[in-house]
Amino acid sequence: MADDSTPPSAQLAAVTVSDDASVLKAEFSDRVLIRSIISRPDGGSGLAGQKIRIGGWVKTGRKADKDAFAFLELNDGSCASNLQVIVKADKYDLGQLVQTGTCLSVDGVLKLPPDGKKQKVELDVDKVIHVGPVDPAKYPLPKTRLTLEFLRDHVHLRSRTNTISAVTRIRNALAFATHSFFHKHGFLYVQTPIITTSDCEGAGEMFQVTTSFSEAEKLEKDLIENPPPSEADIEAAKLIIKERGDDVAQLKSAKASKQEIGAAVAELKKAKDNVLKMEERSKLKPGIPQKDGKVDYTQDFFARQAFLTVSGQLQVESYACALSSVYTFGPTFRAENSHTSRHLAEFWMVEPEIAFAELEDDMNCAEAYVKFLCQWLLDDCREDMQFMADKIDKTCIDRLTMVAKTPFKRITYTEAVDLLIDAVKKGKKFENHVEWGIDLASEHERYLTEVLFQKPVIVYNYPKGIKAFYMRLNDDLKTVAAMDVLVPKVGELIGGSQREERYDVIMSRIEEMGLPAEPYEWYLDLRRFGTVKHCGFGLGFERMVLFATGIDNIRDVIPFPRYPGRADL
Amino acid sequence: MADDSTPPSAQLAAVTVSDDASVLKAEFSDRVLIRSIISRPDGGSGLAGQKIRIGGWVKTGRKADKDAFAFLELNDGSCASNLQVIVKADKYDLGQLVQTGTCLSVDGVLKLPPDGKKQKVELDVDKVIHVGPVDPAKYPLPKTRLTLEFLRDHVHLRSRTNTISAVTRIRNALAFATHSFFHKHGFLYVQTPIITTSDCEGAGEMFQVTTSFSEAEKLEKDLIENPPPSEADIEAAKLIIKERGDDVAQLKSAKASKQEIGAAVAELKKAKDNVLKMEERSKLKPGIPQKDGKVDYTQDFFARQAFLTVSGQLQVESYACALSSVYTFGPTFRAENSHTSRHLAEFWMVEPEIAFAELEDDMNCAEAYVKFLCQWLLDDCREDMQFMADKIDKTCIDRLTMVAKTPFKRITYTEAVDLLIDAVKKGKKFENHVEWGIDLASEHERYLTEVLFQKPVIVYNYPKGIKAFYMRLNDDLKTVAAMDVLVPKVGELIGGSQREERYDVIMSRIEEMGLPAEPYEWYLDLRRFGTVKHCGFGLGFERMVLFATGIDNIRDVIPFPRYPGRADL
Question: ipTM > 0.90?
Answer without folding.
Answer: yes
